Every structure is written in C-alpha cells, then in structure tokens.
Amino acid sequence: MFNLKIFNKISTEILTIKNDLELNSEIQLINKYKTAHCENYRKAIFLIFKERGYSSLEIGQLLEM
Known about the structure:
single chain, 65 residues, 5 helices, 74% helix
C-alpha cells in the first residue's frame, strides 16, 4: 500500500529535480551533490540513491567522499 504520509513530505520541486537527474551516474550525482547550494537538490539526489537500493549509511558514505 502506498504511504501518503511519506509522499506528502516530498515536494513537487524535489520530484521534478529528481526526474531530471535520474539518468546521471553515481559519480555525476555525487559531484552535483557536493556543489549544490539548494537543499531540495540534495534531497532529490538522496532519493535517487535510495531508489537505486543504497542504504542511508551507504549514501552518507558516498556523499562524504
């Protein structure tokens, strides 16, 4: 069942950014995350990694590199 509570926390802007970035490689996403000034941009990249099967710990380690 779809969890509406989770969906409500994700803004339309984040989903739009995420859609634009989905075809980027992991390396490209990491570089874009590090240079991003917008928090929604970073959240979108985090969501992409989650959808690709990375755990929160793994994502944290990737983005700290």
